[in-house]
Amino acid sequence: MVHGRVSRLSVHDVRFPTSLGGHGSDAMHTDPDYSAAYVVLETDAEDGLKGYGITFTLGRGTEVVVCAVNALAPHVLNKDLGDIVGDFRGFYRQLTSDGQLRWIGPEKGVVHLATAAVLNAVWDLWAKQEGKPLWKLLVDMDPRTLVSCIDFRYITDVLTEEEACEILRQSQVGKKEREEQMLAHGYPAYTTSCAWLGYPDATLKQLCSEALKDGWTRFKVKVGADLQDDIRRCRLVRNMIGPEKTLMMDANQRWDVPEAVEWMTKLAEFKPLWIEEPTSPDDILGHAAISKALAPLGIGVATGEQCHNRVIFKQLLQAKALKFLQIDSCRLGSVNENLSVLLMAKKFEIPVCPHAGGVGLCELVQHLIIFDFISVSASLQDRMCEYVDHLHEHFKYPVLIREAAYMPPKDAGYSTEMKEDSVNRHRYPDGEVWKKLLSAQGN
Ligand SMILES: C[C@H](O)[C@@H](O)[C@@H](O)[C@H](O)C(=O)O
Ligand SMILES: [Mg+2]
């Protein structure tokens, strides 16, 4: 049972110099250093368990998220864990509705990333105390308790608590079989690792042929900076993977609405399943216009990795602005808010294909999507979870990929815990890795 009072919250600025190798680069983020604001929660329970939570950042700015986490800390410190999870909706609302802090959000930007980091740590601790991996904690929870974690404010016009409960009740049928299916075969994944924008063609070719050997059948390519480059790179990848395998494209918000349509019309010959983030993540009607224009070409719009909150997802769904919905475990307000989006997607019959990669996103989001399959969507049709092959070695419970599928984690918790040594070495700016790099740069 859940027990203990939160006695300490610490937060670390942890950065990995991925920009040195062009890893993670796209048309808008040309030099990301995959980073995290990393939260550790301790309690007075004397059970040796701690809660770990991350939110993903790209390097500079992580210090700002760390500040925001510290600003939220008074809401968590000295709280009884049982009281937090016993009224999780209330606690979520307390964090996101702080009468002063909400002015610098609300439920968006830095303060929401900080909320995600803190709540991810709470979920990790809860699952650890229950001795279950997070996905299993969620799968075993009765519908009433699950929905009691969700703040339905601003979404009751499309999803009420009763409807959410009903969706979960209906999906009880066949749950056991789906859990067995996940344990045996895992959740299908696609890879983004081969075709970051900063990779030269030779690297792209080599990584693509390795991925094919490893059994990958779905590939995502970064596009959007230069049309001729895109045509060359997409042709290269399509030729290597053949006509049957799946290709996705990701523009990371590079285009205006008409530009997105024109550009994608020129890339249509490579038969992409989707174009991801064609324009500003805030432009709901723009996404709808692009979706409509590209539908006759068989190209769907995917978005969500920079979608602020459940309200924007609600409107994207209402406006028929997307064909694939990409939840993010660290941008939305943790599991609580993600649950509401999974349930809305189910209601609108839109497949969820989570955003992952970064540092730790694969570790976290696998729990959500496995839960989604078992307890909400009950379908694998048009669904897959992103995978990126970076930085897993820094995690205590790294993802396990088998035959291009995420195998359900077995360890208790939310797989958020990093190795202590990795954290120490990559702490910014005084960890060993950064001390060396910064002094080499003359800083
Ligand atoms: C800066 C990052 O690597 C992004 O390019 C990445 O999250 C990407 O959009 C993705 O879909 O994986
Ligand atoms: Mg993307």
TrEMBL record:
One of its GO terms (biological process) is amino acid catabolic process. One of its GO terms (molecular function) is magnesium ion binding. Keywords: Lyase, Magnesium, Metal-binding. It is an enzyme of class 4 (lyase). InterPro entries: Enolase-like_C_sf, Enolase-like_N, Enolase_C-like, L-fuconate_dehydratase, Mandel_Rmase/mucon_lact_enz_CS, Mandelate_racemase_C, Mandelate_racemase_N_dom, RHMD-like. Its EC number is 4.2.1.68. Residues 201-297 form the Mandelate racemase/muconate lactonizing enzyme C-terminal domain. Pfam families: MR_MLE_C, MR_MLE_N. The keyword Magnesium applies. PANTHER family: ENOLASE SUPERFAMILY, MANDELATE RACEMASE (PTHR13794), MITOCHONDRIAL ENOLASE SUPERFAMILY MEMBER 1 (PTHR13794:SF58). Belongs to the mandelate racemase/muconate lactonizing enzyme family. ENOSF1 subfamily. This is Mitochondrial enolase superfamily member 1. It comes from Bison bison bison (North American plains bison). The lineage of its organism: Eukaryota, Metazoa, Chordata, Craniata, Vertebrata.
